[in-house]
Amino acid sequence: MPLSVADLDDIRISPADTGLPARAAGLTVGEFLDTEPTLDEFWTPLLVLDDAALRANARAIQSWCDERGLELMPHGKTTMAPALWRLQLDAGATGLTLATPGQVRTARAFGVASVMLANALVAPAALAWAAAELADPGFELRVWADSIDTVDAMETGLGGLGDLPRPIDVLVELGAPGGRTGARTLDEARRLAERIAASPVLRLAGTAGYEGALGHDRSTGAVAAVRGYLADLVRLHETIAGLADGDLLLTAGGSAYLDFVAEAFAAPAAQTPGTRRVLRSGASLVHDEGFYRGISPIDDRLTPAMRGLARVVSHPEPGLALLDGGKRDFPYDEGLPVPLTLAGASATALNDQHTFLRAASGARDATGALDVAVGDVVELGLSHPCTAFDKRRLIPVVERFGSDRVVALVRTFF
């Protein structure tokens, strides 16, 4: 029997669960939540989620997709949290996208019925596991390939398994020079599609790509590169559609350029018969105060649903305070944390376990020091959900930011 999200309430809390109150040790998650814990009991540094914002964001991104005739298969590697996956599936997502075979297995353990692996599946042990899972007629699995070498490796790995329950669905991945994975030209991608269509153990199932590797802002050059790439992706899809037997997926979309994905997928060439147009936006559920707030075309529909809490532990010199959380606690690859409760201060650097908080003149007291005391807790706006969740096994969720009531503990599986 698959696990359920409700089973996570039976996990017993350990003293090794970072940030939880000492009194929680030995209780199950459900027993602890029954005591109506408050956030001020938790130990800093801490990542905190906003329940109301998560639910509103799940509705918002699903509604945005529905309005444009797109399916949503959000990228579950962002959170690796089955409770948050279930939130989006219940809101209307038709499946999940994941990045590694191990992540796919975790999703299957929680009964997720439709999974797209946005990566190649070539490890023999993972291929054997996937082939066995396909004996369940209710399970949909789709993987990507970007070269004939990938197809050869898949066929070799599947070759000794005997008769498969059914072929493995494979999408042709289109890349771009200087990008990440993906066939580099339309001709290469077309030849790959023909090779997949001829395979006795694979089925050509569509076209896939990731436009976010081609831009990092909304400059003229980045927008042109993204739009050009998406036009090529649609052109490839139209070209190979006649090689396929059954429904086809056409999929793209991180959380930065989803408007351009919707625009490209609205073209007649993207709507060949049997095509399912799929967006994979994963960060939209959590959103942020940094990178995605600055680049997302639907920022007005979304609310940042994660914050950091860190405590002042040192005032070593005027205008500088050190917080007790750093790179091991908060994301920093797409921008440093931003103090939300200390006007005029900014984070200027992170060490492993410290944040350097420096003051502009308006944030200093009469002595020239930052206007916070040792022991004060500072709320931090964070950037990039994809590198926030892997740092904690159990993450507290409050009713909404501004409320101290903890209503859930989100369990991650990194």
TrEMBL record:
The portions of this protein that span the membrane are: none
Q: Which domain of life is it from?
A: Bacteria
List the InterPro entries: Ala_racemase_N, D-amino_acid_metab_enzyme, D-ser_dehydrat-like_dom, D-ser_dehydrat-like_sf, PLP-binding_barrel
Per the database record, which ranges form the D-serine dehydratase-like domain? 305-399
GO MF terms listed in the record are: alanine racemase activity
User: Which controlled-vocabulary keywords does the entry list?
Assistant: Isomerase, Lyase
Q: What is its EC number?
A: 5.1.1.1
Regarding protein family, the annotation reads:
Belongs to the DSD1 family.
Q: What is this protein called?
A: Alanine racemase
